Amino acid sequence: MWKWSVRRWAGxxxxxxxxxxxxxxxxxxxLSTARISLSKVRNIGIIAHIDAGKTTTTERMLYYAGxxxxxxxxxxxxxxxxxxxxxxxxxxxxxxxxxxxPWRDSFAINLIDTPGHIDFTFExxxxxxxxxxxxxxxxxxxxxxxxxxxxxxxxKSKPKICFINKMDRMGASFNHTVNDLIxxxxxxxxxxxxxxxxxxYKKQPxxxxxxxxxxxxxxxxxxxxxxxxxxDEIMVDDLDxxxxxxxxxxxxxMIETLTEYDEDLVQxxxxxxxxxxxKVSAQSLNTSIRKLTMKNMIVPILCGASFKNIGIQxxxxxxxxxxxxxxxxxxPELNDKNVPMKYDPKVGxxxxxxxxxxxxxxxxxITDPIRGKQIFVRIYSGTLNSGNTVYNSTTGEKFKxxxxxxxxxxxxxxxxxxxxxxxxxxxxxxxxxNISTGDTLITHSSKKDGLKSLNKKKELTLKINxxxxxxxxFGVSIEPRTLSNKKSMEDALSTLITEDxxxxxxxxxxxxxxxxxxxxxxxxxxxxxxxxNDLKADVEFGQLMVSYKETINSETNVETYxxxxxxxxxxxxxxxxxxxxxxxxxxxxxxxxxxxxEKNGKWDKEWKCQVSLESILNSIIAxxxxxxxxxxxxxxxxxxxxxIKINSDWSVPPDIETPQEILKITRNLIVKAxxxxxxxxxxxxxxIMNLDLTIPQSDVGTVLQDLTGARKAQILSIEDESSPAxxxxxxxxxxxxxxxxxxxxxVITTLHATQDKRxxxxxxxxxxxxxxxxVPLKEITAYTNKLRSLSQGRGEFNIEYSGMEKVTNxxxxxxxxxx
Length: 819
Hints:
The chain has 20 helices and 42 strands. The protein is an alpha+beta fold. It folds into five domains: 28-322, Rossmann fold, CATH 3.40.50.300; 341-453, Elongation Factor Tu (Ef-tu), domain 3 (Beta Barrel); 474-546, Elongation Factor G (Translational Gtpase), domain 3 (Alpha-Beta Plaits), CATH 3.30.70.870; 555-676, Ribosomal Protein S5, domain 2 (2-Layer Sandwich); 686-818, 2-Layer Sandwich (Alpha-Beta Plaits), CATH 3.30.70. Pfam families: EFG_C, EFG_III, GTP_EFTU, GTP_EFTU_D2. One of its GO terms (cellular component) is mitochondrion. Keywords: Elongation factor, GTP-binding, Mitochondrion, Nucleotide-binding, Protein biosynthesis, Transit peptide. Belongs to the TRAFAC class translation factor GTPase superfamily. Classic translation factor GTPase family. EF-G/EF-2 subfamily.
């Protein structure tokens, strides 16, 4: 037996000449990511359903990497990544947290821990924009849950590793969870699972029960167990006969899967291994797994129990062994698809063949009580230096950078430079008003003020495609307690929506009512808490309400403004349509609205005005947002899915000094165009939700009647819930799915047996159905209590935003009457 007593496995150099492994030196936590080769950097996101154990797993990663001296606990509220007061008090992740740490001396991992609750889905969206790969954490008891399905789809192009967590819990099923993964994500695709390790259960002499204590390393044919009293100790043993049989079958299945796609492994198997599965080297298997993982052809699967500190080190090894570096990941999506891009080992993404071009994306804004506003950025190309002059190609603004930081959840460390592949923080007064979420930043990698040497037309106009912001579905009215509190309320709301763009503010011009809009009840609850307790706004809130929208069903008249001093604009508003020829399309805000600019000679010629073309465009976009936010004629709800088209004959005076007049002109034209449109051309829209219900079979009729009658739901399907495939004896019998991939069956433990006995006492409870439906959000609010009543507390449901749809005529008047 080898006993690994390595507290800092990550950076320890160990003496392996004896069976007892001993630390020689540890210094990994002082490793600077700026000195690490790009090929050794991993940018990963932790994604999962709520309560699957994301934060618990992250805390163990930080402990074993040497970043934290103790293991943070969600229940006691001392975690590193959940550092907000609201997160620690509720025991959930609310915002994504970024942290950088080393692993195994030479690797740097930049990790973003994301929320699992559906209300905070925007945090997942913006994290996925800047990471290169994912670690998907699954609850071994619950299997694949609703939010797991959603984040899997959102991250479909990202290479993944799956970690089946909570293997120590009652009802945990490795077999069921892997089969669930295959059935929900891999059936009908070319992607297949590869079991890198499998659970190891140890029989307890006193009770004859089997307890989860470690994993079987399929590639190296070893058993790894963890000491429950010492989190730093790992025992590495040879396999007993039963475990060896399991391991060999898993390895054979692994090789069969890999050789379907990897000709190099086929050659190694036939020649060097002489067709013998046992002779296939660990190095060949790891190389093949890495290659195919990065092509999204396989998903490596590992297991463990994060709360018991089991399986974390093998998971971190899998991250660095199998997931891509920044020079192996997807190329960023740029607005100009004709600009050449390729990866370079030194500069990262080489854009336009210019090694001096630095491109970064601002993906998150936070407000630190001491340092003020801080901007999270991902560096895609080149080097970002403190003090550099930076060009914001999204806004057209130019400014000088202040201090740079590397994030460590609630804290950060100052650095002089951020290199390609890194995630860092920008600070200082110059960034506060010049950068927002989704902005692209461009600078020269080596010159402090080198923007002049960059190609103005090709390089300074580059933008990384913006971060998608889903529209809000709930709103709550907000007003200051006294008139003197109004300014502080507006400042607090501005800070709030700057940090979280999935929150928005709308104002009814007739009533003057201000409404804070968000993604769900919990989202708004947290926002209200932050406004009052963190931002000290003295405000009052109204009742929660559904966020309706309006749209138009026909085009407005063309409105024109022309002045003697050189201003000319003509525009019209119409429902969203397919892309128009010879036009450039710009997204406006979060309501699926667009600005359409007809092309003319101005786009191709050298721009002569003092004010940049980007500043003029941003002013027009700002006027569009204001004009559409004024609302429609049915109930003054903000307009949705509308396009504003500026005709090609627009012009501005060449000596224009500010774009303020443009903003005023275009806003007035938009308002006039919409005011002239008759009321019958406006349509009321409501949020429609995808509903997933899991209920006992005996309650299906009652629940369906309620859904289709009282809640106006459209039933999409009724399916059987898949049930765990647990073996009847502790002999580790196997199962194979339709792809003939070997998955070891679960050992029957006393806990499993007790649970199964309890389930079988009621056959109607043992057979469960999944109802999938679409339903208006208004009809599903406060549904929890109703479902509890209909299913005797045995039903559960998840909802997810589907889209905005026209309110049906039979419900229109009642909705307008209730507003």
